[in-house]
Amino acid sequence: MNRRHILCALAATPLLPQLARAEPAPSLAGDIDILRRALALHPGLYRYNSPREMNARIARLSRDFAAAPTMEARYLTLSRFTATIRCGHTYANFFNQKRAVRNALFDRPTRLPVHFRWIGGRMIVTGDPGKFGLTPGTEITSLNNVAPRAMLAALLPYARADGHNDAKRVGW
Q1: Which of 19-23, 139-143, 149-153 has the weakest average pLDDT?
Q2: At how many degrees (to 10) do helices 3-12 and 148-155 cross?
Q3: Residue at 172 is within a domain
Q4: What is d(CA 38, CA 111) in angstroms, rounded to the nearest whole number?
Q5: Is 171 contained in some domain?
Q6: What range does the domain containing 67 cover?
Q7: Strands 115-119, 139-140: parallel, antiparallel or unpaired by DSSP?
Q8: Could you report the per-residue pLDDT of 50-90, keeping only the tens digit for each?
Q9: What is the number of alpha carbons within 13 Å of residue 82 lying toward its C-beta?
Q10: Helix (H, G, I), strand (E, B), or coil: what is residue 165?
Q11: How far apart are CA 63 and CA 136, in angstroms?
Q12: Which of 105, 104, 54, 43 lies closest to 81, judged by CA?
């Protein structure tokens, strides 16, 4: 699974009404404290952020994580936070999740049925394994009445990359 797969999954996530269902929250006490202690060991934590910025972000993460109604929302909250560290190695790694969590978050019909690349903010089809009749080079101009450029702007805060290089966040 690469960044484009994650971006595709995240792109489709807000479009699925079943994700709006609330689920009982597991005991979250201590999760953010564990993260805070782990981040104290991060060698690049303050490379692009000041201690004051990170403390404010961790406080907001703690509040938002506890208030998130679903596992999906908590995963997105954590992903958005880790992207602010601006370290390509720091993210909510999908490979490190239990199988049940991986299945719940990623093994469901939330991905686009085509392969594509972001080119200058445009969504260009590179392959159609589902045989929907989209030839490589076709531009997708809207998904559920959302322009790809708006979708990309909404997704960038969740994508990881080193520093402020947004081009690396989308594979440019």
Answers
A1: 19-23
A2: 110
A3: no
A4: 32
A5: no
A6: 3-166
A7: unpaired
A8: 999 999 999 999 999 999 999 999 999 999 999 999 999 99
A9: 21
A10: coil
A11: 44
A12: 54
* DSSP track, 92-125: --GGGS-HHHHHHHHSSS-S-SSEEEEETTEEEE
Q: Is residue 34 part of a domain?
A: yes
Tokens 């938002």 found at: 64
Whether 158 contacts 9, CB under 8 Å: no
Q: What is the rounded CA–CA span in Å between residue 101 and residue 95?
A: 10
Q: What is the DSSP letter of 61?
A: H
Report CA 13 to chain centroid distance, whole Å: 10
Note whether residue 89 is domain-resident: yes
Count structural domains, the chain.
Answer: 1
**pLDDT tens-digit readout, 34-47:** 999 999 999 999 99
- The structure tokens listed for 143 are 């998904």
CB atoms within 10 A of CB 56: 12
Instruction: Specify the DSSP element, H or E, that contains 127.
Output: strand 122-127
The C-alpha torsion from 103 through 104 and 105 to 107, rounded to 10°, is 40
pLDDT tens per residue across span 112-123:
889 999 998 899
Taking every pair of Cα atoms in the chain, the longest distance, rounded to a whole number of angstroms, is 51
Tokens of 39: 């981040």
The CB density around residue 110, as the number of other CB atoms within 10 Å, is 18
